[in-house]
Amino acid sequence: MRALLTYRVAVEAQAGMRVRVPLGARRSVVGVLWQRLPAQSLDFAVKPVDAVLDRSPLLSAHDVRCVAWASEYYHFPLGECVLAAFPPALRQDKGRDMADGDRPGGTALARVLDPHGWVLTPEGAAAWAAGQVRGSQQKALMSALLASPAGVLVEDLPAVPAATRSRLLDLGWAVVHSMPVEGAAGGALGLNSEFPEISMSSIALNAAQQAAVDAVWQARAQFGVWLLEGVTGSGKTEVYLALIAVVLREGGQALVLVPEIGLTPQWVARFSARLGFAPTVLHSGMAEGARLRAWQAARTGRSRVVIGTRSAVFQPMAALRLVVVDEEHDVSFKQQEGFGYHARDVAIWRARDLGVPVVLGSATPSLESWRNRALGRYHGVFLPQRARAGAAPPVMQLLDVRRLPMQAGLSAPLRAAIEQHWQAGGQVMLFLNRRGYAQSLLCHSCGWVAECPHCDAFVTWHRQARRLRCHHCGHEQAVPTACPSCAAPLSAAGLGTEQLEDALAGLFPGAGIERLDRDALARVGELDRRLARIESGEAQLIVGTQMLVKGHDFPGVTLVAVVDADQALFANDFRAPERFAQQLIQVAGRAGRAARAGLVLIQTHQPEHPGLQRLLRDGYGPYAEQLLAERAAAGLPPVQPAALLRADDPDAGVAQAWLTQMAEWLRADFAELAVWGPVPAPLARRAGRHRFQLLLIAPDRPLLQAALRGLDEAFAQRRVGKLRWSMDVDPVDMA
Ligand code: ADP
Ligand code: ZN
Ligand code: ZN
User: Fold this and answer.
1) What is the per-residue pLDDT across 523-572, written as a single tens digit (0 to 9) for each?
2) What is the pLDDT of residues 598-635, one digit of tens each?
3) DSSP one-letter code for 485
4) Is 17 helix (H, G, I), strand (E, B) or coil?
5) In terms of CATH, what superfamily is 207-383?
6) Looking at the CA of 476, which ligand is closest?
7) pTM over 0.85
8) What is the Å distance from ligand 1's center to 17 Cα?
């Protein structure tokens, strides 16, 4: 790992504070003070820091340990890992050089870096008692200060003109204090007057929910991982809410991790309604200022419940007492590029370090968690039935489409079923994992296919945008009007969601149609508008990709159609069968969430596929057991831990030779390590770079970690000429 750098710093500076330091001759960068060394160990060559940016540490000892662990475990430079604990606004040195109040942003940021509060002075109290406080605004300010003897954070002061505020300070009735961060990790916040009572649900938990809550609640004073396995609609969210209520009553904070941004509007609305206040939301799509405020509120403990996506797992929190990871099997919890952490695993590490429970919720647990429960490392809690009265599990049926004529990817039986459910007043969801109009453009006369010039991949036709786009490197080009090689007309190949949407409009005139995919997220508020049209019933036919399966609750859906199940059956990643089953069950869970029974139709050319058969006949549990047995037999994760070494270069030979060298080095030093490759990555060329990979599988974690540390030491530079290489520990995606 990249070494820590040593600087001279004032005695008052503490670990967890940010500093600006000189780097090389000209550069100056923001860093975090990591540890203090005894003064005598410094020699005279050590430069002083340019500035200490914070007056109190922004990271607690727990946060520092967490980042250090993640850096070591995922083999990513500490200096870059630590940034994950900060919002983007604090990763640079803004605000410090600006005189207070002079320039926009300057004051606000300075306050946030070191939370300032106002405290009433004895003179102020005397003035109040003597009736010297005049005017409604001065009174508002003074009464806020009187109500909080410990001080009021600047951002929480009543909104009064700056002149009124200054006057109060001039009179000596109040002083500005830097407010200590309440309760470092592990401490209690004490009940805040903002939440005198948690106004919880009118819903009475059913027996299974109550048992789950009791089990976690009774063990809440210590670390434990609770795998909450419950079918879609079984009321897992209600279990989280009940546990959060307990934690809040005891003065703690809760952190809830969810897979996707698309989920948060519904979640936030539901949490707000049930808790009586809005939870703090954290995700990477937020504006910088809002994210900074949310970060600060969570860090100081002012906000009690934080809902966030992957990156929120590093959020500093003053009194974290409960962590929830919803849809724990979801691949979006794993960061694919750069710092390749898995938010679920970091969450578990944090809970262990703090001695608090962590709840992993899923209808289809990952094989990792499944195995950990079997080994007794995780506790199992179960919600076997749908919670809402009358909601039955959906019926799943395979639709053998061999030899059936298809219209826009829809067979006649499926078209009939859509018609029937639509006419009966139900909503229909069509699931297709390919956005855009068509996978590519094809020439029927000469066989030309539109491909990305930089990747080994097709370019997707986005008809509404009138562009061909590469989903791997972002390359875009205009749509050719005819085949560039023989001038014949071109046709669409490989059905995409846009095309399906168009086709449905022709097949079902009068139906309201809505599409949910990543393209629909491009504009702010667009997703909300589309969700609203679905919720109101204005849209009856809904087309979408994976996003559809992420937790949205549409009670009116009675039919779910999987347009093309074959796509997933032929993927070459050993995790594909697991993902496929998880997605299928999630999709199926969208059907019949309310009183009306749900039907799931799965179009396939492989109706005899043994995995598909087992999944439909026996359900996810036996299917998962079988997959786990196969992984054990093959010595694959999660039974044996793995890491992937990736290298890419404009020259294929260079990347391959580099990994070959690493493979030889590893084989010589670690006889028990299985080293597979190098082989070309599934996407062999991306953005003009040839990609190769080496898969390492070890009998145990210590050996794997030793091998990776060895590589770090032997091949310290991650860039060699134009070559880049990286490590992916516990990879979830072989691409
Ligand atoms: P999950 O998170 O497991 O998918 P939810 O918590 O979203 O399930 O619950 C599914 C539906 O059932 C929601 O509409 C919820 O309000 C309802 N529900 C949950 N628990 C109960 C209960 N104990 N009694 C009645 N309805 C419930
Ligand atoms: Zn042609
Ligand atoms: Zn490309």
Assistant:
1) 767 878 888 899 899 999 999 887 766 666 788 889 999 998 887 776 76
2) 899 999 998 988 888 999 999 999 999 999 999 999 99
3) T
4) coil
5) P-loop containing nucleotide triphosphate hydrolases (3.40.50.300)
6) 3
7) no
8) 44
